[in-house]
Amino acid sequence: MKHLLKKNFNNKILIEFIKEKYQNNSEFNLKKQKIMLSVGNLISIDYKIFEGDKERIQNYEGLIISIKNKGLSKTIKIRRIVQGIGVEQTFFLYSSKILSINIKKKYKVRRSKLFFISKNPEKLKFLKIQKVK
Question: Between the CA atoms of 21, 112, 91 and 47, what dihedral angle is there, to the nearest 10 degrees?
């Protein structure tokens, strides 16, 4: 029984060490970029893509339809229209592949998840642009 308690204690120390390393690191900390992401923002993300030996930067622009806050595994789901077809992609915010995030527009929404837009994209025109202060 003491062996199990000791093992769990070491795991807690390891988890705290990893959180301190990545959340306090300037490369992974988005708060230093002063970007406040929320559902309903139209954003542009630059991220790295590895293709064999080569590496290139891809730009992805779309509307945030959901945010999941789970510590280091914080994710956002972005929806955009490509050649008339809706595409959704999930990004890890603390990933080293994300180079920059720019907010294009802010929409005023009253929901925490905007999955109704994926079912009926015509409802996007009902969102109102929020005034940026």
Answer: -100
